[in-house]
Amino acid sequence: ETGVTQTPRHLVMGMTNKKSLKCEQHLGHNAMYWYKQSAKKPLELMFVYSLEERVENNSVPSRFSPECPNSSHLFLHLHTLQPEDSALYLCASSQERNEQFFGPGTRLTVL
Amino acid sequence: QKEVEQNSGPLSVPEGAIASLNCTYSDRGSQSFFWYRQYSGKSPELIMFIYSNGDKEDGRFTAQLNKASQYVSLLIRDSQPSDSATYLCAVRTSGTYKYIFGTGTRLKVLA
After folding, report:
1. How many whole angstroms separate alpha carbon B28 and alpha carbon B26?
2. Which of B1, B19, B22, B96 has the most C-beta neighbours closer than 10 Å?
3. Per-residue pLDDT tens listing for chain B (111 residues)
4. Does A103 contact B43 at a Cβ distance shorter than 8 Å?
5. Cβ atoms of A105 and A88 closer than 8 Å
């Protein structure tokens, strides 16, 4: 595997389900990010981890819960989501505060 | 005022022409500037980054930064139909991991 990988690539879930998104970076970077991309809106930064510590946390509903067990892995735990949470969720990594590299994204649909 | 502004387009240029994409930002403390290309249904792909005032060239791409005017641009020379995509401008505030994205400019290169 190279670059940044994300699984699953597509996810359909009901409002009462619990699911997790996984991201893994193979670039040796020390910072990882979660973004949300909705139609006609700019990428929204959700969470940032640097050296496994959360350093940025925008106003994200508590139904989204991040986890960064080590510098290569990042998870986004989802529970009791709303239909408006349907979007493309992108993971990215960077070395320090340099350029970011994105994974392919998870297309999430909440029914 | 939006933090990072881009004209949504579409910007249509004939094949072989120069495409000029513009971005303005509001935070004078911004330190790093990035251009990404995003094809429909795909994730953003880094094209260039620029940190200092002036021009930076990489192949057919030139990034231009003017911090006094809070303006960054991307020039694509010899535009090809394969350059047709949405181009995202991103700005990072000094001392943070906060990357702010514009909504993107859709470029159409006509064969």
Report:
1. 6
2. B19
3. 669 999 999 999 999 999 999 999 999 989 899 999 999 999 999 999 999 999 999 999 999 999 999 999 999 999 999 999 999 999 998 888 999 999 999 999 999
4. yes
5. yes
SS3 B98: coil
Q: Looking at CA atoms only, how far is residue B100 from chain A in angstroms?
A: 8
Vertex B30: Cα angle to B25 and B33 (nearest 5): 75
The pair of three-digit structure tokens given for residue B32, joined into one six-digit string: 């790093």
**Across the interface, which of A45, A50, A103 has its CB nearest the CB of B99?**
A45
Span A11-45, pLDDT tens digits: 999 888 899 999 999 999 999 999 999 988 899 99
Query: Do residues A109 and A82 make contact, with C-beta atoms less than 8 angstroms apart?
Result: no
Give the A-side interface with B, CB within 8 Å.
31, 33, 40-43, 45, 48, 50, 55-56, 88, 90, 97-105
**Residue B97: which of A48, A90, A104 has the nearest Cβ?**
A48
